[in-house]
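G.,

No rush on this.
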Amino acid sequence: MPELRRDPIIGRWVIIATERAKRPDQFSVKNEEEALREGEKCPFCEGNEALTPPEIFAFRKPGSKPNGPGWDVRVIPSNNPLFIVEGDLDRRGKGMYDLMNARGAHEVVIDTPRHFNEKGIPEEQITKAIQAMIGRLQDLERDHRIRYVLAFKNHGKAAGGGRLVHSHSQLMGTPVTPKRVKEELAGTKKYFNYKERCIFCDIIKQECDEGRRVIAQSGNFVAIAPFASRFPFETWILPIRHNCDCYRTRREDVPDLARILYQVFNRLSATLGDFPYNMIVHTAPFRNYRKKGYWETIEEDYHWHMEIMPMLTRVAGFEWGSGFYINPVPPEDACAFLKEVVKGS
């Protein structure tokens, strides 16, 4: 019988369609990649730096020069930015409508100089990519026009990935806090006001106590299949120590985060093959602009985390019209499949 599950953070309902339950090999949506045209060079590969805008930041080998070979991780402006650094916001009204200039930032973090994806990237390289992302978030926080930075990765055609399959992430700094983020902030604040505890800390404690949905755990991070998973094999990675800001992660904890990311992607890849996915970092908004009473408890009530969403099913009319999601794989089953990979290896 189908089961309705309510997400405790924002109140979103999910239908766990047990009668449609599938094994990993029963999904018809596999990753589709658009290959580069014959003779076309990948601009993200080492040696092709002239094909991209000048770098903003890079981890480089000693003696190497900017915008040339010799880098480990490279950050560049997007070739087709949605948000532009230069200029003022110019907030204004037009009758009943509000508008402003799309000022902010749109950057690309190239995770590795080599042309391969997550399953082939070693932990040390993932560590450097995370450190580069954190460094950019710390720098963008200084720009008072930017309220929020969304860090995300799209892999595969079904997940909105483009022709550049070379592993990379994007950072988008926006002059407003996105609506999806506000919904989560409102839910965590409501819970804190009632219980005086962080809802994510409570989720971590309950999941670790029960163990049914814990995919992997390290000293400082835990990976879970969320109770109200929207997508088959959806996975969240959370810091066990309370922290609302991703970019305030302690430097000594970054290798541990890289390790659990490496483990999770290895398990997902072993279970699903080369699957399309979106990965999003949920972090608190910048507080360099404060309305009175607006961020009073955010350091206590919010908890940053990563969400990995395999795109194995399609969102259709019912989902768009109702706000419900339909998931044919109960998270407990997904977790069991992913754990079985370790036993069978």
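When you get to it, here's the other one too:
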Amino acid sequence: MTLPLIVVGLTGGIASGKSTVAGFMRDAGVPVIDADNLGRLALEKGTPAYQQTVSTFGEDILDASENIDRQALGGKVFADPEARAKLEAITHPAIAALAKRGLDLVAERGEPLAIYEAALLVETGIYKGLSGLIVVSCSLETQLARLTGRDQLTHAAAAARIASQYPLEEKLKAADYVIDSEGTFEDVEQRTLHVLRELKNRFLNH
């Protein structure tokens, strides 16, 4: 008998450390479906979402190879909620279809547990259909430091990027588990493994 796959959401704000946490989960042998990677696949040249996005936002979002330049596209939608909503209406159904296919493959392999990593699980309400929700948390100062260092953004641009997102406090209200990403990589790895043990005890050790 194949047991149903348990899917737990993983989310957090920009530069909160959720990709680091996802990496530790993969290292521990838990499959992770990454919505950001699926978003790239959904917008690959030749896909319906690619055609719709270029039609909606113009050919100036394309690079020399006619692939969508995510930075150029981001520049058009970042500060414009209406444009962002248009993009999400195009990409979210495509990402959802790819995610379902990925989770189906994970289930077919007989895996008991998978993680679905996505930035907008709380905003879209997707988390309500999952078995649980992990939110990765850090201080605003840490987010700013990571963004200015990682993405070479100015302090003002980094602050604007964070302010445009759903407040962390609201995500934390929906969380079943919280992983604090402050401290060393070893600290964060131990916190991640602790949450994985809790998930296995809750869902798998019956």
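The beta strands are 6-12, 32-34, 113-117, 132-137, 177-180. The mean pLDDT is 92.

Enjoy the weekend,
O.
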